[in-house]
Design a protein that fits this description.
By secondary structure, the chain is α/β, with parallel strands linked by helices. Helix content is about 40%, strand content about 15%. The strands form 3 sheets. Strands 8-7-11-9-10 form a 5-stranded mixed β-sheet. A 4-stranded parallel β-sheet has the order 3-2-1-4, sandwiched between helices.
Amino acid sequence: MRDIKFLTKNFGKYDTNSIGSYMSIGGFEALKKAVNMDPQEITDLIASVKVKGRGGAEYDLGRKWSQAREVRGENKIIICNADEGETTTFKDRVLLKNDPFNLIEAMIIAGYVVGATEGFIYMRAEYFCYRASILSAIRQAKNYGFLGTNILGKGFDFNIRLYSGAGAYVCGEGTALIRSIEGKAGRPRMKPPFIKQSGAFARPTCLNNVESLSIVPHLLMDTEGVYASCGGGGSIGTKLVSVAGNVNCPGTFEIPFGTPVREIIYDLAGGVQKDRKIRLIQFGGASGKIADDSILDTPYTYEDLRAAGVMVGSGGILVIDERTSVLDFLRMNQEFFSEESCGQCTPCREGNLHIKIILDKMAEGTATAEDIHMMKKIAKVMSMSSLCGLGETAQNTLMSAMKVFPEVFEAGGAK
């Protein structure tokens, strides 16, 4: 496998507690370059290599920044979504831990491009151990004049604040996250108005994932076109993937797009424990779809995974071996969503509850064919009418399981 270190090239090369150490390896040179460029040049650069949002929605980053810049309004806001609540997803954690100054630099560049004056980092409660490091990076950046007023003498003002969540999965959704920042209950709201027009504190807001932001400083300094040389088509560059489950070496790995799933699992993650057979693989976190081992030779790209019935999503890859049944996995996944639903909208609140009941009936051998039909109907209603992405995607796993493992649902699921 080709050894790629683009997004992770700073890991282990500087003292993450020292801005001077970061600057010694070229830190903040991307910011210095950015403020001497037209913002449109930067968005065009990002768009040219087709950087998609790394939080799961896969929205074009260059387009998002262009749209945010075009919105009229004062005191715009940049938000970094570091909530990372998807199970089996921990790629943003390694960025927060190993390269905090790069994230700060990226947010300042984002602020310059869209015309924002303030930035918020919303970090999940479970990442409390990184809070001191992030706060120190913000403080040092301000002391060196990279944050505050008249940054680098360009008349550009920008500051960053850190917020900690309280562990709610639903706060990974943009509007719920914003409500949490505002001191309200972390529950999604209807759109429109869209976040880019009226987000945090009713101000125009641009919200990005940690990995999405972290790419930008590296991209601006990529004079040799390393990023563009990886992947191809609609999947250019590299991607951080988190591999977990029944593998020998779980962890986060940077791969070029196009790497076969087999290489990720068997070369990077060390293969399945005790050479057991794979029962299923879930892509993109708890709300992701599942596949069997026939997907192993599929290239890891947006297009190829979508054609295979799954998705890149948050970048998580969960490997489940033959010891766990498909039904047991579905029940575990459903318990998660039944717990994490905020309960605000009926389709998600009641849908998750009733699907859990039917899955339990399947485990007991008492489910009927009518139960299975009703479960499928509820899942479809949830995907079409839930208020936010949690309810819309909560049954991705179930619906994909019905296609990949139809035998599990035969005879009313009595097996």
